[in-house]
Amino acid sequence: MNKLKAMYHLCCIAETGSFSAAAKLANAPVSTVSRSIQALESELGAELLKRSTRHVALTEIGKIYLNESKDILAAIDRAEGRVGSYQNAPSGVLRISALPSYAEFRLLPLLEEFQSRYPKIVLDLELSNQATELHRDGADIAIRGGSKPKGRVIAQRLEDNTHRLCASTSYINKFGTPQTIAELSHHRALLYRSPVQVLHWHVKSHGTWERININTAQISNSLRVIRQGLLADQGMAMLPTWSIEEEIADGRLRWVPMQETLSIIASNPTSSIYMLYQQPQYTIPKIKVAVDYFKQHL
C-alpha cells in the first residue's frame, strides 16, 4: 500500500464528499480510491469513513487522521518545492495574506516594482483581517496587526500600529481642540468596525479602561472612508500613522494630544504591524526575496 497516496485519497474524499468525485479529483479509478482507503483502514485498525448509499462522512478518528495527513502532505510539498527551486531564479506562486487597509496604503504601491524585479514570481494576494495559520491556510507570508504572535512563526515587526486621536486642521479651527475626556463629549467620532466588533474608544482611568461617551458620526470598516470623513470635517478618529502619513505631512490632518491615555482596544493599547513567515520556508528563493524586499521597504 502507498500510504501517502492513501492519505491524498482521504483528503480528496473529505473535500468532495464522495468516492466518485474524489476519484475525478485524484485522476484515478473509483476502485483504486476505494481499495486505497480500505487498505489504510485495515492497516490502522480503525474506521476513517462512515459510508452510506448517498453520503460519505469522516468518523471522529478520521477527522484527526485527516488533519495529520494534510500536515504531512503539505510538508512534503514544501520539501520538494525547496529542493526544486533552491538553485533556480525566484519563481512560482507566492501567496501573501495581508490586512486590507495596510495592503492598500503600504503594500500595493510596492508590488509593481517587486514584480518588475522578479517577473517569474506570480503573486497570489489575499486581503483578510482573519488570523492566519501559515501551515494550515497555505500562505507563504502574512501581514497582520496586534501583539507579537506566539509560537514557532517568525514575526518581523514592520512598523507601529498604535491608533492615536486625530482630526483635520479645518475641523480644529471650527470646533476647537479637546484636551480632556470631558471636552470630547462636545465632539463626534468616526469609528472603525473590525470583523468582530465596532472599536469604540476607551480611556485609562484609575488603572482600568472605560468606554468614552462620545457622539458617533460614522462607522466603517474602511480606513479610507474614515479618512475621507476626517477631511470632510465630519468628526475625529483614532488612526495609525501609516494610514494618514501624507495628510499629516501636508497639514490637512493633525494629531490631537490628550491629557489621558486613549485606545481603541482596552486590552491592547499599543500594537504593531508584523510580517509572519516560517523560518524553514525562508530558504525558498521566492519567499526569501519577498521577505527581504518587504523588510527593506516597509
From TrEMBL:
Residues 1-59 form the HTH lysR-type domain. The keyword Lyase does not apply. The keyword Transcription regulation applies. Keywords: DNA-binding, Transcription, Transcription regulation. PANTHER family: HTH-TYPE TRANSCRIPTIONAL ACTIVATOR TTDR-RELATED, HTH-TYPE TRANSCRIPTIONAL REGULATOR. Belongs to the LysR transcriptional regulatory family. This is LysR substrate-binding domain-containing protein. It comes from Zhongshania arctica. The lineage of its organism: Bacteria, Pseudomonadati, Pseudomonadota, Gammaproteobacteria, Cellvibrionales.
